[in-house]
From TrEMBL, chains A, B, C, D:
Subunit structure and binding partners: Homotetramer.
Alphabetized NCBIfam families for the sequence: Gln_ase (TIGR03814)
This enzyme's EC code(s): 3.5.1.2
Species the sequence originates in: Paenibacillus marchantiophytorum
InterPro entries: Beta-lactam/transpept-like, Glutaminase
Record's keyword annotation contains Hydrolase: yes
Catalyzed reactions: L-glutamine + H2O = L-glutamate + NH4(+)
Record protein name field: Glutaminase
Family as reported in the entry's similarity comment: Belongs to the glutaminase family.
Entry keywords, A to Z: Acetylation, Hydrolase
Length: 321, 321, 321, 321
């Protein structure tokens, strides 16, 4: 098709999106009762269970929001996508993939089996917890403080929002309670995967998990990935294309915990979820998307969020295949 | 871009492809020494180790071939993609996904761990051996003979080649030696996944693994998937689009055994490999691709075949992300 | 203590045993409602659930019986103790322990994990199903028929009962339904543990599992083990002492499935249970014991049988430690 | 036999023991070259590799020593037997066995598989590292310092040696390097098995592992177990018989890591080994035995120590079965 027709279709889509989004959000909102707010981190357990918000942003900076789009939450596992990108920028592919593998796994996100059984000591991929902890240790910086400062700076740049901060209450709550992550980190240390000290790595890890955003921040961050590393609004390259390619591939094959395959089949776009009930997703070449709804299904993904993205994908035929 | 420009670029690509393919094949041919012909099925062990052939076919029926493109081989695991499609056409999504899961797994293709550990008794996805055996039992037909007849008919239709036949020597060799598959099948039977008898299911399974093709057949079959179920040359729909979407998603997330993630990251297109050293791949919306080179790397994929597809993907920027 | 005193105590014990056994059996009988008759083999599911019988036999041939001591049942896993002994007599320690390990395992009796995870392909010990199947293949005999004939002859000799026969209905039922065992056997075959064909090995295996006995037979077989391989009644050596030592060690460390440790701690004598609800046990140097009560606890051992043995061990301080 | 004859035999045995022990030690000494001194704790790696010492003590206090019997070493895993006994004395069976299981396991001593796979979160038994860490947390005491003081007091009492102390260099070395144990402890904490803090539990755990003894201390401690909790030399009960029974059962079924089954079959007496190359063993009702030789075989037990105990067991027919 020619460019004009393509633009025309995009305009039509956008129009349809803006007119119907609130209604689709209302429809998906019913699913907020079908799940449970994450409780293993006490601070997360305080999140309201009847929230559903979304923001979709296009390359020109147009945004459409619906539902509780002002709701603020922490990035949690979504941050892993961007620390992976930082580690790649700081160290290069060779070093990063000597510490984590490239293979998706249908196992639980915090299982230790994968570390002991199949490829002893090396996390299967950078998006499972063990892999993300290994990645945190690769971020440049003379100590955890400097790593966290660099991470915060990078995330602010990608989100084009200099006010992003770490939610200290969540950070503290994670540090105090995440025995499983501490267990994983010592296991990695024992296997020679971590060069720095466990306490330092975890401080960095819990810090980037605790960065607070809203749906608009998510959408802007996603938009940069959707446009292969360029912020299309400022027309500024923030990330080398290759590293975005890597990040999007991992999001597609293992971004939604052990429901990644199901999501790929039924929604069909790259996405990464966090236990705060958030999902960062995108339509490659077009939109950045941020969604949040705290109640999680039994696979750890936002129930209403997944439903809403499924609806949108179906309406606009977003599936990559 | 407009249609004319798009066509122009496609023509340029095709021209470049036809002029350079032989040279790239020659370059990848060196990698045939870097691997071993599958030996666990005696008949497969007889395959020559210095073969590399490829066929690429476009929507208009143009084909470019290079290397040992006449070499004949059996489909092996590549057949799993099309029996999955048949099972979906015969039974629908609900029944199929009550017997197999949707999640990729980085484990060995014939591991039993996934059956016992994480989701007892249900294979993780339809492309690992256990899943494909479960799928074989879902093909319509009053007995194994009728199932095999229907499969052969369907494969001939998709390949547009009425001469496809089962290689009886390979079939016999597989039947005689595949103790691991027999073990998997009885495990599935014990878990209530198989309705029919193990011997019947395995006869069907070994039969479709033993269908003999060449690269051109593979390319034609791939072309139908690349065009969402329509054979673009005959302009005839052979498979509902949704089932092709499912098949391509599984190919992308788990089509290359436990190197699927690596292939997705480095080549970036849907593909399925077989232990005969064959790979069926495609550029969605454009080409169907068939490659064969028997020596396998330690993950079970054709060493030279993977190298050649990587080279092509890089040259023409085929990666989906 | 001197011999006279020792004999006096033994006489006192025997007297107490004969006067109280019926009462203890009545007390343990309540536990027959606390468990379920094995149902995975249809023929076993027909066993009555309110049966409890016991026979205790001393070196002089004195026997005391109580409860349903005439009840007939098949040996099931108890037979593994005696096929292990035969394999040792036929092949020697070196060959036997090249095919099975020596280590107890707390896993489920029919788990495949142990085969794949820790010591690939080699069953952990001769009393788990996989190990016992490997042992069956080591019994001397030109074919399964001859193996079974030799087994039956040996079991008749040890039980001093020439009328022992295979229960054909149980044998048939096991052969028809034991998909898990068939899966294990093909897994072993794939790993080179079995020299003969799977069907032949399983015919032998199911045959010795289906030998029918009563509590008196069990007690006599146990008596031979209690006296280190000599039938003390006939004063005749039937088994070399070393092989009885091996058998008793395995019974102590892994004779009661994944409750072996608990049984060792709470009852403290060598024992082997079968899914027919039978238990062969002994007081080393003194008694042979046979117990049967079909309802099994969730670890696969006879609920009332374990209770009764626990009571007796406590009363007479039978624990080895 | 009567008492006189029995005493006579014991005297004969003792005479033979005293005359031949040095020669048997010399023979086993060759095996010190067949293994490696534990290196994962730096301080242990300093141990000399050509040491072999033994002490055997009888109920009357007679001792026979041979080889490097003055060599001093830390208890390491041998301490687990006595902290188990303390936990049983402090809390009772019910509480102890709600935190650890009773089943032997042939897996590696520090594997996490058993925690995640079969009985999630509960260590399989009190002698694997995870189980022993759980046991450490059950020792009475208002803090780790008090726990350690009580442990030291108890160990001194059982060894009848008020000079026993913690080797601070080994303690420090263990604390600094045992990432795997820290990983296990956090895993247990995450599963609710530990009530106290991980750092406190590990301080207690590393402390009792670092108590320094010689072979004579080991023999005296073993003698108390051999005599069911009574120190026969002082004729004083130190431990209730039931708890010694429990301890000896675990030593028999899982005291020698994943060679426990092999040791039970070939040596046949209760024993517990430590990575310092030490083994505490006993002939129930008779002797306490302490052996040390630092080089370990691949299962983690002292190569020469196991050989020497095997020789003694064979000479004197010590096997329980």
């Amino acid at each position: 098709m020619d460019l004009k027709m393509s633009h025309h279709i995009e305009e039509q889509s956008w129009k349809q999106l803006t007119s119907h989004l609130a209604e689709w959000v209302a429809d998906s909102h019913k699913h907020t009762t079908d799940g449970h707010v994450a409780s293993y981190i006490p601070e997360l357990a305080n999140a309201p269970s009847d929230v559903l918000g979304i923001c979709i942003m296009d390359a020109g900076g147009l945004t459409v929001v619906a539902g509780d789009s002002d709701f603020r939450f922490t990035l949690q596992s979504i941050s892993k996508v961007f620390t992976l990108i930082m580690a790649l920028m700081d160290r290069g592919e060779a070093i990063v993939f000597s510490k984590v593998g490239m293979e998706p796994t249908g196992d639980d996100f915090n299982s230790m089996l994968k570390l002991e059984l199949v490829e002893p000591g090396i996390p299967f991929n950078p998006l499972i917890n063990a892999g993300a902890i290994a990645i945190s240790s690769l971020i440049a910086g003379k100590d955890s403080e400097e790593q966290v400062a660099r991470i915060l700076q990078f995330f602010r740049e990608v989100a084009h929002n200099p006010t992003l901060e770490i939610n200290q209450a969540v950070f503290q709550s994670e540090s105090d309670t995440a025995h499983r992550n501490r267990s994983l980190a010592y296991f990695l240390k024992d296997n020679g995967v971590l060069d720095s000290e466990v306490d330092d790595v975890l401080r960095t890890y819990f810090s980037h998990c605790s960065i607070e955003v809203n749906c608009t921040d998510l959408a802007r961050m996603a938009l940069v990935l959707a446009h292969n590393g360029v912020d299309p609004i400022r027309n500024q390259r923030l990330i080398p294309r290759r590293f975005v390619q890597i990040a999007k591939t991992f999001m597609f094959t293992c971004g939604m915990y052990n429901a990644s395959g199901e999501f790929a089949m039924n929604v069909g776009i790259p996405a990464k979820s966090g236990v705060s009930g958030s999902i960062l997703s995108m339509v490659p070449g077009q939109y950045g998307i941020g969604v949040v709804s705290p109640p999680l299904n039994r696979k750890g993904n936002s129930t209403a969020g997944v439903h809403l993205l499924g609806k949108l994908s179906q309406e606009f035929d977003w599936s990559l295949f």
